[in-house]
């Protein structure tokens, strides 16, 4: 009896939601086009970091090398975006990485993913209010604000969060027109910045001499901050995936929206960081409002006010997008039974999740009082990198799974009995007999993917000790070579397995290499974080697991009548 109970408990943890259930979910209105989704992604990304984060990284961490930092972060984001794009073709529904892991990896991983996204979205719009707007307010040269607001910015941030929470609760739907207007305004302002920066820039600022540093009283030029901080600038495509149920043609527009918005944002970040370091020596760049101060430095005072206006207008739509995404994630998880059912309560006439909206807004208001800005930025980066790694692994697993046909119990029985006729041998491991995926080949890929995730994590931990590697320490070099050999061998096993031939609007090219490269870059960037960030991340995960094991596991979809009638069905993809 205890063995059976333990078996059922394990099945509940790895219960995988069928793809068909996700595909049949409906939304109240499908109004978003591909252009709308691109506008949402660009508005979110540029509003989140271009006006303030670039100055923080340039002045305090990387200097002119910021363009290279954004290049690395952009590459990681593009790889993650490709994985999201393929999954958006497979499963066009809201919930983003949460739904993807629910379908592929199981319920426990889905809960962890959704739980991380909730705090990431909440921390994101607190960061926008508390850091970007408050720091801009401190610039009395640009904005003449009451002195009391400058002195008590944390309380102002908390009040503004609560105000926007009320606005979000009263809205009947997303104002796509406002988002388009704000995106267009932002692109016009940033285009002006890039063009004028190349005109007024000085190449000497990229060729600073020792005399320049001595004259500025700047002695330490060797430090380089965490690369993962730049990654926060490219998380806008998450917002696109959460709008899947509102898209007119999600299987086509979601992949296109992700790829196009990431490409546009990378070009803008690259251009702005380049001209910023050309206009002003990087050690003189103002961290709070770098672009307006750069124009003050070159004597273009009027342009300073134009840029400041764009810097203040854009974050507001981004804040509302973050608040919408956080409440939507809470709503989806509550409907799935993983969070308290009361969080799924909606306004009867407007169908607005009032409770989820209030909860997310309250969490942000609390953060506005007790947490530092940079800690939340790093925390958001760790959480996002972790979930992106899960999505890359999900793509790797799902592409090698056999097609499911849930047309009746007979079809399920036939599919479940098929693995009994297959035997795993060394020959079938490298030379599968079937040109299409089978349950056995799918299981091989699942196990190998888990093993690769472990090996890549160990490799990143070793590479974090790069001084020992550069010194030629034979022990560390031997460990690296052994890990590379194992990774190559396991990757070869996955490469030999047959892939699914299901026609999709978009597929990640170069499987299995690109998803594995995405996982490697994400994990390596995560290793750059300090212990305090990991401690905050661990505490949040422990709180979530306590909620899941005390409530979610007893009320989840695994307790549905259909699942209770078939224990095997609850553990299948």
TrEMBL record:
Subcellular location, principal: membrane
Coiled coil: none
Keywords for this protein: Amino-acid transport, Glycoprotein, Membrane, Transmembrane, Transmembrane helix, Transport
GO CC field: endomembrane system; plasma membrane
Protein name: Cationic amino acid transporter C-terminal domain-containing protein
Organism: Canis lupus dingo (dingo)
Membrane topology: Multi-pass membrane protein
Transmembrane segments: 31-53, 65-87, 108-129, 149-170, 177-199, 223-242, 254-285, 297-320, 352-373, 379-398, 444-464, 476-496, 508-527, 533-551
Pfam families assigned to the protein according to its UniProt record, in alphabetical order: AA_permease_2 (PF13520), AA_permease_C (PF13906)
Family designation: Belongs to the amino acid-polyamine-organocation (APC) superfamily. Cationic amino acid transporter (CAT) (TC 2.A.3.3) family.
PANTHER family: CATIONIC AMINO ACID TRANSPORTER C-TERMINAL DOMAIN-CONTAINING PROTEIN (PTHR43243:SF13), INNER MEMBRANE TRANSPORTER YGJI-RELATED (PTHR43243)
Gene3D superfamilies documented for this protein: Amino acid/polyamine transporter I (1.20.1740.10)
Domain of life of the organism encoding this protein: Eukaryota
Domain Cationic amino acid transporter C-terminal: 506-556
InterPro entries (UniProt xref): AA/rel_permease1, CAT_C
Cellular compartment(s): Endomembrane system
């Amino acid at each position: 009896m205890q063995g059976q109970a333990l078996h059922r408990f394990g099945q509940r943890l790895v219960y995988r939601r069928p793809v068909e259930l996700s595909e049949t979910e409906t939304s109240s209105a499908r109004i978003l086009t591909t252009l709308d989704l691109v506008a949402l992604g660009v508005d979110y990304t540029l509003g989140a970091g271009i006006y303030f984060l670039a100055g923080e990284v340039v002045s305090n961490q990387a200097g002119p090398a910021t363009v290279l930092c954004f290049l690395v972060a952009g590459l990681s984001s593009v790889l993650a975006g490709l994985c999201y794009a393929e999954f958006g073709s497979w499963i066009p529904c809201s919930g983003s990485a949460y739904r993807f892991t629910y379908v592929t990896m199981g319920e426990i991983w889905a809960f962890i993913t959704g739980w991380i996204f909730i705090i990431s979205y909440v921390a994101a719009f607190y960061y926008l209010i508390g850091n970007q707007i408050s720091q801009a307010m401190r610039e009395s040269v640009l904005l003449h604000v009451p002195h009391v607001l400058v002195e008590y910015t944390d309380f102002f941030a908390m009040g503004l969060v609560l105000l926007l929470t009320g606005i979000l609760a009263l809205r009947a739907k997303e104002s796509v027109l406002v988002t388009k207007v704000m995106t267009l305004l932002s692109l016009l302002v940033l285009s002006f910045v890039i063009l004028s920066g190349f005109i007024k820039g000085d190449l000497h600022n990229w060729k600073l001499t020792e005399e320049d540093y001595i004259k500025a009283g700047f002695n330490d030029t060797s430090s380089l901050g965490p690369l993962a901080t730049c990654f926060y600038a490219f998380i806008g495509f998450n917002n696109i995936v959460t709008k899947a149920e509102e898209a007119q043609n999600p299987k086509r527009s979601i992949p296109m929206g992700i790829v196009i918005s990431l490409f546009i944002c990378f070009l803008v970040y690259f251009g702005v960081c380049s001209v910023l370091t050309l206009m002003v020596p990087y050690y003189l760049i103002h961290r709070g409002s770098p672009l307006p101060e750069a124009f003050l430095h070159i004597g273009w005072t009027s342009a300073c006010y134009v840029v400041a206006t764009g810097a203040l207008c854009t974050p507001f739509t981004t804040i509302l997008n973050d608040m919408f995404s956080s409440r939507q994630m809470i709503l989806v998880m509550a409907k799935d039974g993983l969070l308290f059912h009361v969080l799924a309560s909606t306004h009867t006439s407007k169908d607005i999740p009032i409770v989820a909206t209030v909860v997310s807004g309250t969490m942000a208001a609390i953060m506005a009082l007790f947490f530092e800005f940079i800690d939340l930025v790093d925390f958001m980066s760790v959480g996002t990198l972790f979930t992106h790694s899960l999505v890359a692994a999900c793509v790797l697993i799902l592409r090698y799974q056999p097609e499911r046909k849930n047309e009746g119990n007979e079809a399920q029985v036939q599919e479940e009995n098929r693995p009994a006729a297959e035997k795993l041998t060394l020959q079938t491991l490298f030379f599968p007999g079937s040109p299409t995926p089978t349950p056995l080949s799918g299981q091989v890929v699942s196990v190998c993917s888990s093993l690769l995730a472990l090996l890549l994590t160990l490799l990143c931990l070793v590479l974090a000790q790069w001084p020992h590697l550069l010194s030629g320490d034979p022990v560390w070099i031997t460990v690296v070579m052994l890990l590379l050999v194992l990774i190559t061998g396991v990757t070869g096993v996955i490469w030999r397995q047959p892939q699914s031939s299901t026609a999709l609007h978009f597929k990640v090219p170069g499987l299995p290499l690109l998803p594995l490269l995405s996982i490697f870059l994400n994990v390596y960037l995560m290793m750059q974080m300090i212990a305090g960030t990991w401690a905050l991340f661990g505490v949040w995960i422990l709180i979530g697991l306590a909620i899941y094991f005390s409530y979610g596991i007893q009320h989840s979809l695994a307790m549905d009548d259909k699942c209770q009638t078939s224990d095997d069905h609850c553990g299948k993809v």
